[in-house]
Amino acid sequence: MISFFRSRFKPKLTSLNTIRVDRASILRNLEFLQNLQPEGVLFPVLKSNAYGHGLKEVSSILKNIDLPYICVDSVPEYYLVKKYAKKRSLLIGETLPENYKKLSHKWATPCVYNLKTLQTLIATWKPWTIHLFLNTGMNREWIQYHELWWFLELLEWSNLQLEWVLSHFANADETDSSFCDTQIAEFKNMYALIEQYGFEPKYKHIYNTAGLTKYQDPFFNASRTWIGLFGYSPLLDEDPVAEKLAWLAPALEVTTTVVSMQRIKAGELVSYGGKFVAEQDMTVATLPFWYTEGLSRSLRDKRHVMWQGERLPILGTICMNLCIIDCKHQAINVWDEVTLISTDPEHHNTIKEFATNTATIPYEILVNLDPKARRTIV
Length: 378
Hints:
The chain is α/β, with parallel strands linked by helices and about 375 residues long. It has helices at about 1-10, 25-35, 45-50, 55-60, 75-85, 115-125, 145-155, 180-195, 210-215, 350-355, 360-365, and strands at about 20, 40-45, 70, 90, 110, 130-135, 160-165, 205, 220-225, 250-255, 260-265, 270, 275, 280-285, 305, 310-315, 325, 335-340, 375.
């Protein structure tokens, strides 16, 4: 009866735009990254809507994988992982003190790098498992060496369990990543103080995807996947170890639908400002996707879409929800599907090339994809 009313009053509509997430690619990438540190434990990071892939969808993909934790940035993300993956979450981002009272210590493990947060957790009287986040030189947040003893003194007399100690590399993705050596040394220095207080954390790590390719220190027994899980290398092409990540497979494809066709004559303009003027009679088509949906407006005249193996250029000024393409005399029709973002590098409309053409990084393109856009697992 409930499903009947849901279908009547909240029908499942078919979307003009679809973000497809490839289950097999996600799982292959996870296995590949695990093999870079075979004796270690891997923690997937699904923050920022799983890097644009959809937190609900990727959580569902990882549901049956043996993982001690899934890393998230916020409390709303924690709730989605709990619902769809049925796994514990490591909260690597901060939240307001009152929110800890609403979280289950059985499903959430906070990363602590604020003394007031530690005091708040102790005051809840819940037997939290916590992870200490150390500042090893990035100086963005986290615990500095000179204040670490305050945290350890409080933990000695609390009912909290220190399970994990971690930090974060500042430049592992750069060709000259020598500062990582300094961070590793500082981590070990701070960890020695933790041991002096009698703590024996189960996990210690600083590795991200780039770090896994450059360091194999047995001192660290865990790592976070970050963008590598989704098939993107954070390394520059000229990095000497970039080839190690060449096997990663992008898991995201974006398709949209032709909603209009226009036959225009030579000399007529296209879109706002007349930035494109037809040099000959031509047919153009309109697609319902652009900067509201998360792609940069600056891509005008730099991009194309794929339709049945053909590259069709984007013309003129890109609009809020629309872009216009040159049909190039192809037999394209209204309601045809075209591919905006491909996983095939030979199509030259991948996330990496979008990022290059807008002078940014794949991370930014991915996380800006509209969270309301329909995502489907394939």
